[in-house]
Amino acid sequence: MTQSKTPFIVVLSLAMTMMLGPFSMDTYLPAFPIIGESLEVSQQAVSLSVSVYVFAMAFGQLIGGALSDRFGRQRVLMSGLAIFALSSIVIGMADSLNTLLWGRAVQALGAGFTLVSVPALVRDRVAGRDAAKLFSMMGFIMVLAPGIAPSVGSVILTLGSWHTIFFALAVYALLLVPLLVRVLFTGTGKVSRMKSPKMSLLARYKLVLSTKPALPFIVWQAASFSTLMMFITYASFIYQGHFGQSPSAFSMLFAANIVAMLIFNILNRILLSRLTSLRILQLATGCQGIGILLLVMAAFMEWPLYAFLPAMMLTIGSIGAISPNIQACFLEFFPTSGGTAAALLGAAQFGVAGLLSALSAMLPHTLEAVILAMAACGLVAYVMLARSIIKGRATAEAP
């Protein structure tokens, strides 16, 4: 099945499934003060639930990806949704910090099972440029989730307590079950995978890790995503702390990056009709490199906000084209182990980004330090870009 024949309802269903990740991470953020007061702990203690979630989701992807290659996408995806829904209900009834943290860990395992199945489902359906187009269409829908999730959480808080947010997440996960069964796993929506050899989990990961041409894309994705995670971690400090903007102005400034990602996503879909995924990936990473260079200049030369913002939009917006093309290029190497490959890519992305974000707490709390941390991540991605160009030229010149 080619991407041109992929119905929009399929794309929408896959995107709504992927939205479970950002929704479960961001929807409860406005409730942090209320949760802390309810559980009689500090907001800093409540924020531990974010770190727990990121690391547990990385682990869930590692397990779920290999299991989906062994037992099928539907079993693993539906199991993930069930685990997610049940743990969300437990969190919704939590009366202590320990229950919250353990509940978030189990919830993240379910999310990991669910989210890692989606790139594998795409790889089962299409490959190459068509896969990049499908990832890009999904990304166009999914990139809205981080922007609207906190607002959704705020609306839910006006209707009930913080517990209601997690009950709503449980309902969302349960509603996905009949949708996915109807759209993806029955009738014309069902797609047969290439037969996957019976292997242990460790053997599957050994197979993926032994495919050396694919490994640079893991580093590339982890570096680019870490740049985004670093920005998200310090966005409030950058705009409200350093530039002194109000909460309402901060929301608009943060949303500007979402708009930039959408623009890059649209450009990516247009360019895929003319260029390969790798070429667009190289161009987008080059744009991110230019954006980071401008950010460094802005930080150390004390540029005003109106000059700083476009540089940040270029840096973050380019990820809208980087991510879908990395996924397409990487998964192209694994026609029968798409789940395991997607798991390794996702786990590296969240694991590395979560670790670097946590370690960045030891840096000086200044704009220059934050930008240099982002620049370090961007530099690694730029090295991967240079490596791919050099390798491409060597291949072209080979007799």
TrEMBL record:
Its main location: membrane. The chain crosses the membrane at residues 7-25, 45-64, 76-94, 100-122, 134-159, 165-185, 214-237, 249-268, 280-301, 307-330, 369-390. Pfam families: MFS_1 (PF07690). GO terms for biological process: xenobiotic detoxification by transmembrane export across the plasma membrane. Residues 10-393 form the Major facilitator superfamily (MFS) profile domain. PANTHER family: MAJOR FACILITATOR SUPERFAMILY MULTIDRUG TRANSPORTER MFSC (PTHR42718). This is Bcr/CflA family efflux transporter.
